[in-house]
């Protein structure tokens, strides 16, 4: 029986009503799930292994660049590679997730205007899946037009959300700009840590909620000073209280008693790598159900492999030791050092599940 036994789902990828059930479990339990960007089967499998070890559900996602890499950089048509790579990743997770005994949310990360064809291509594939009696490929997609005026942002979301809602796919939107850069999407950090564009206005969140929530399910990545990547302390100032103000603003406008802990919004924490435990805990208490982790996981993978190469330098220069004649295949075999990298990811993610409070709270039926 799950430690979060008020909710129960079959293990595997969750979409539609099951996705909403998992979000409700996170809200009720006041915990969040790590959302890890992946770029190949090694990172996917490591995330599933870590989730199973922590008895936690998890979010697996890919960026447009990660999707293209999954398909292979050798594909000449980059746009098609993004669609096929993301679809290939999704199908791999659909096949494997239930075997690891946890619930998995599948998501695509930041898609600005030039990458909307990527999202529309994936929606089209999900339409084919649903027409054939299967679930959609993804649980949710992100449309990130936060760098554009609010009206342009919401108008595009209004165009695509009804199509997604019919399939049981949720929409993640971004309001305000997350600092830093990820796969060519983001905002350069400026010297002034109090950049206005890094802080979302609660009134904008309310406008988005009133216009979009009648069309389908949405989650909101509201910026509160968070950044992509890891930066030296003091470069930006996180203000998780902005999330609370947004919740209160929407609660009051929708008739819920203000100040009673209502959390009408399902919020997303972007730029989670390098954040303090205090800021993460505060954000989760204000309704964050999802925290993105990319940079730290990339480093954990690279650091582990780098350490292995340093321990066995000759194995990565010679097949056979030039002095002793000993073969080095057991070291340079890709399965050996890629597995070391996978273990690095698993080790790093133990901390993420713990700080987000999701350890032992999977709602997957055992």
Overall geometry comes to globular
Low-confidence stretches: 179-195, 228-234
The total beta strand count reads 11
Radius of gyration: 21 Å
Helix content: 40-55%
Q: What can be said about the biggest beta sheet?
A: 9 strands, parallel
% residues in beta strands: 5-15%
In whole angstroms, the N-to-C terminal distance is: 7 Å
Structural class: alpha/beta
**Nearest-integer average pLDDT:** 89
- Counted by DSSP, the helix tally is 12
- SSE run: EHEHEHHEHEHEEEHEHEHEHHH
Write structural notes for this entry.
By secondary structure, this protein is α/β, with parallel strands linked by helices. It has twelve helices and eleven strands. It has helices at residues 16-29, 41-53, 64-71, 78-100, 116-131, 150-165, 202-212, 241-253, 277-285, 295-311, 329-332, 334-355; strands spanning 12-13, 33-37, 58-62, 103-108, 140-143, 170-175, 180-182, 185-187, 218-222, 267-269, 288-293. Strands 1, 2, 3, 4, 5, 6, 9, 10 and 11 form a nine-stranded parallel beta sheet that branches. The protein has a two-stranded antiparallel ribbon with strand order 7-8. The protein is globular and about 80 Å long. Residues 179-195 and 228-234 have low confidence and may be disordered.
